[in-house]
Amino acid sequence: MTNYKWRSNPNIIARLVDGNDIKTWKARQVVLKPNEACAFIIDGRIGDIVSEKIVRNIGGGLGRHIADLMGGTATDRRMLFAITGPVDLGIPFNAAMKNGSAATGLMHLKVQLRKEDIPKLLNVFANSAPLLDRNALVGLIANEIATRCIAPAMANCSNAEELRSPEFQEHLEMHTEVEMRQTFSNLGFTFLRAYISTDRTDQEKLQKLRADLDIATQTEGANADALMERIAIREAATLRRIECEVNVERAKKHGEVTIQAESELLELRKQEAVWEAELARDQGKADLRMKESSHKTAQAMELFEQVQARKRDRVQQSQEHQDQRMEKQNEIQMKMMEMAAAQGALTPEVMQEFLRQQTAQKAIDGSESSTEPTPPMSTSCNQCNAALMPDWKACPHCGAVQE
Fold first, then answer.
1. Residue 284 and residue 334 share a domain
2. What is the H or E stretch that residue 388 is in?
3. Alpha helices in 55-101 (DSSP H)
4. Pure H helices in 344-395
5. Tens-digit pLDDT profile for residues 43-54
6. What is the domain extent for residue 361?
7. Please, are residues 81 and 36 in contact by the beta-carbon 8 Å criterion?
8. What is the per-residue pLDDT for 371?
């Protein structure tokens, strides 16, 4: 015969077991502890309620199987197991106090299911699963407790100090016992104890913040005072050392310089040091500005010299090119005249056309070399008085050479 465990989780409070569902070849038995009880429901009637014993043949086994086949056992056999010890429940809440601030926390309930009240759990299992644990029990009573107990009690609570007071806890416990008596009685539970544990309210958080700020301020003030004391001690030591040095110097000089003069001299030296530092700073800034200006001017002059040098190179190249071209043209024209003279074709018309082209070419070269050329002035031949250009070396009409 093997043992049957009806409670596999410590949160389980009660369980309704159908004996016909236990079908094993070995008979099953259950060991009831001092805080456990079992009520038998046979064919719809409540039978014995036992505790602290071993209940044998609760289901299974070959003999019971044969008896079921022969109709020698009850048709409906159920067992209602339950915990008879105190059960702690935690119900979360969020309610508003009289001053409007919110209070959150847990309401702790301690209830007990007595042995003679176990059959009342059938009212619970009639509308729910055949298993009752702490969460299921909290779900059954949480809304009613929050509405009928917690909310009215919080509405009469003025502040956080009253919320933490023993009087409020006692009032809440009595109020819960009175309001929930009928509900617990219908479920089969007996009310034992009730109290709440709340989180810090907004007012308490604000007070804590202010207290922390005051402590931080006092700490900072204490640190500042200690620092000022250390500075004062160092200042006194420094002044004392300076005074001793002045006394030594006065003793060395046999009283020639008074302490007041030495102090004034020390102040003047300090002021001179400040002036020298300011003068050096201003001189450095002025030198820096001068160096920047000189550098920029040198860069500008260097760029200007480069531009002028390139311009001179271009002008010189253009002039050399023009001179070479004119020399080349003169050489070609002289060869052409020599060839024409050798062939006997040097007529006045040819000379006139040759001189005209030479004049036109020189005019073009002159316009290229000068932006504003001077118009040539006409002259006359020395022998035939024909009109000639200033640059003509011979007369195209008579062939006389012009001086």
1. no
2. strand 387-388
3. 62-70
4. 348-369
5. 778 888 888 888
6. 313-369+378-403
7. yes
8. 45
